[in-house]
């Protein structure tokens, strides 16, 4: 099973600041990595698929990069609605797996 | 507009079998490349893939739960059913179903259903 390790666990930032979230895979997942945003009481929302492709309707301030084992989600300038938990997920090998999440909180 | 909705009991007793139904609309599970997956999330914890089923009846199960899970589809009813046997309090979680298209998990998820396992 591929283990995804996200860092940091928590990111304390102010609106307008940029955010950089990391996801590292225990073995190569090629580019088969997605990023989700989840707010309390809601289902996850797909932001990025296949490492760098924005899902439909996702603002341009969200971008993804990386391949192989190291991936990054970048939020260029945090809006108030961006404070949430973010998960990465690989679909390279079954079982598909999620990381443990990074919480982006208001500083 | 594509929708998915999970239904089933909100409370089950330890050792009982859980049966969850995902009812969907505006897509067909007989279309090539389409699948439906189940994911769960214990309170305050991370997400976990449980199982998925594709249009061609190809099925995948989480290795750690494989002996307890069964996933089936009823194309005529637009439903996918997940059964989990021998429920335990650690299985308390919100259970989601989601649409998979072309191998990619889409943004179409159900709202989730919280299942509590308690005597």
Total helical elements of chain A: 0
Tell me the major beta sheet of chain B.
7 strands, mixed
Number of strands of chain A: 11
Radius of gyration of chain B over alpha carbons?
14 Å
The helical percent of chain B reads under 10%
Q: What fraction of the residues of chain A are assigned to beta strands by DSSP?
A: over 45%
Beta-strand residue fraction of chain B: over 45%
Please give the number of β-strands of chain B. 11
Mean pLDDT of chain B: 96
Helical content band of chain A: under 10%
State the distance separating the first and last CA atoms of chain B: 39 Å
Categorize the overall geometry of chain B: globular
First and last CA, distance of chain A = 35 Å
Name the average pLDDT of chain A: 97
- The radius of gyration over CA of chain A amounts to 13 Å
Q: If you had to describe this structure to a student in words, what would you say it looks like?
A:
The complex is a heterodimer of chains A (107) and B (119). The N and C termini of chain A lie far apart (35 Å). Chain A has strands at 4-7, 10-13, 19-25, 33-38, 45-49, 53-54, 62-67, 70-75, 85-90, 97-98, 102-106. In chain A, 0% of the residues lie in helices and 50% in strands. Chain A is mainly beta. Chain A is globular and about 35 Å long. In chain A, the strands form two sheets. In chain A, strands 2, 4, 5, 6, 9, 10 and 11 form a seven-stranded mixed β-sheet that branches. In chain A, strands 1-3-8-7 form a four-stranded antiparallel β-sheet, with no helix packed on it. Chain B has 119 residues and is mainly β. Chain B has strands spanning 3-7, 11-12, 18-25, 34-41, 48-54, 59-61, 69-74, 79-84, 93-101, 104-109, 113-117. In chain B, the strands form two sheets. In chain B, strands 2, 4, 5, 6, 9, 10 and 11 form a seven-stranded mixed β-sheet that branches. In chain B, strand 9 and strand 10 (104-109) form a beta hairpin. Chain B is globular and about 40 Å long. The N and C termini of chain B lie far apart (39 Å). The model of chain B has no long low-confidence stretch (mean pLDDT 96).
């Amino acid at each position: 099973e591929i283990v995804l390790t996200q860092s940091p666990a928590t990111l304390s930032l102010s609106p307008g600041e940029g955010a950089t979230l990391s996801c590292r895979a225990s073995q190569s997942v090629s580019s088969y990595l997605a990023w989700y945003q989840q707010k309390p009481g809601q289902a996850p929302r797909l932001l990025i698929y296949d490492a760098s492709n924005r899902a439909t309707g996702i603002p341009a301030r969200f971008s993804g990069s990386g391949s192989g084992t190291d991936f990054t989600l970048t939020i260029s300038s945090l809006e108030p609605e961006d404070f949430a938990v973010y998960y990465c997920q690989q679909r390279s090998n079954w079982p598909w797996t999620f990381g443990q999440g990074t919480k982006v909180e208001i500083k | 507009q594509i929708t998915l909705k999970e239904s089933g009991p909100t409370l089950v007793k330890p050792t009982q079998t859980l049966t969850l139904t995902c009812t969907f609309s505006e897509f067909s599970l007989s279309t090539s490349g389409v699948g439906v997956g189940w994911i769960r999330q214990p309170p305050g914890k991370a997400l976990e893939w449980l199982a998925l089923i594709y249009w061609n009846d190809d099925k995948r199960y989480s290795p750690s739960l494989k002996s307890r899970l069964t996933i089936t589809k009823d194309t005529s009813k637009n439903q996918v059913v997940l059964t989990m046997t021998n429920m335990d309090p650690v299985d308390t979680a919100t259970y989601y179903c989601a649409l998979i298209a072309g191998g990619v998990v889409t943004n179409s998820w159900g709202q989730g259903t919280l299942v509590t396992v308690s005597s």
